[in-house]
Amino acid sequence: MEFASKLKELRQQRDLSLRKLGEKSGISYSILNSIENGRIHPSRDNVIALAYALKVEHNGELLAIAGYATEGEEDQ
């Protein structure tokens, strides 16, 4: 699954607007909008911040989808 699709799915499951997710993650609305629409690729730090804000138990899946996790890498 593409990161943008996964982000949107998780955000909607938690009933969060992009603005609310931005407040929780410390990432601006415009950046989140661009990530979710596939215009930009998130940084590793952004993926970790989003995982924390979305209360994803293990961020390894999101990191892998975004192309950052390597096999055997520990979840943070």
UniProtKB/TrEMBL annotation:
Domain HTH cro/C1-type, first and last residues per copy: 7-62
Keywords recorded for this protein, A-Z: DNA-binding
Xref: InterPro entries: Cro/C1-type_HTH, Lambda_DNA-bd_dom_sf, TransReg_Diox_bact_type
UniProt key word DNA-binding: yes
Keyword field contains DNA-binding: yes
One Pfam family per UniProt: HTH_3
Family matches, as CDD domains: HTH_XRE
Highest taxon listed in the record's lineage: Bacteria
PANTHER family assigned: HTH-TYPE TRANSCRIPTIONAL REGULATOR, METHYLPHOSPHONATE SYNTHASE
Protein name: Helix-turn-helix domain-containing protein
Species assigned in the record: Paenibacillus baimaensis
